Amino acid sequence: MKVAIITGASQGLGLATAGALAGLGWAVAIDGRREDVLRRAAALLPAGQVAAIPGDVTDPGHRTRLAEAARRLGTVELLMNNASELGPSPMPSLASYPPGELAAVYAVNVLAPVALTQLVIGDLTATGGTVINISSDAAAEAYAGWGGYGPSKAALDHVSAILAAEHPELRVYAFDPGDMRTEMHQRAFPGEDISDRPEPAVAVPAIERLLRERPPSGRYRAADLLVGVPR
Fold first, then answer.
1. Which residue in the list 149, 173, 217, 220 is annotated as catalytic?
2. Which tens digits make up the pLDDT trace of 17-64?
3. Is 136 a catalytic residue?
């Protein structure tokens, strides 16, 4: 059975993607920091097709447990580094960003995806698999107040490009899902009504298209991949 590792999959885009892939016959190894939320998420997925490993992606021991659980399910063919850290809310200016908080953002958004990729690179290269690193428009555009999250996602984009250059047998995508109605997005705009943002499930067909059509490695936007797709 094909296996996907999806981090940060207790809710939002991660959970929506896990559900869609399970419906296509994939097994999924998912994680999340809040065990109760993760367990509820796992209960929504088909029994026998899911391994839910609570923990923090910045913890080396947790990453090892996640990779091992994925291998017990079958053949790892997809790593989706979806877990992300926004940083403080409200978001501080870059000039006043607490160094410890900034380091924590990079630990989740850059260092953990690299470390997890290193753990399963042998599995992925053996199958000609796929890495999807969840990016953001903040990686490409300069927004005031986004001096932690935005540059960390820009670094992840470049990590993706280098991994693709080093491993042409893989497909490596930096994927920008666009604005979504998620807990993290609400934290980015505290006190504001974000009900006009689409649900995360809207972006999932774009991920399915990447996996189905396997275009060249690169940076892709859900908005472009969904052109012509009924909503």
1. 149
2. 999 999 999 999 999 999 999 999 999 999 899 999 999 999 999 999
3. yes
**For this structure, is 149 an active site residue?**
yes
Instruction: Pick the catalytic residue from 10, 84, 135, 152.
Output: 135
Q: Which of 10, 106, 153, 173 is an active site residue?
A: 153
Per domain, the residue ranges of the chain are: 2-224
Active site residue 153: yes
Gap between the Cα atoms of 102 and 87, Å rounded: 7
Cβ atoms of 214 and 130 within 8 Å: the answer is yes
| Catalytic-labelled residue, pool 10, 84, 106, 136 | 136
Q: What spatial distance separates the first Cα and last Cα of the chain, rounded to whole Å?
A: 30
pTM, two decimal places: 0.95
What percent of the chain stands above pLDDT 70?
Answer: 98
| Helix, strand, coil percentages, rounded to 5, for the chain | 50, 15, 35
What is the domain class of 2-224 according to CATH?
A: alpha beta
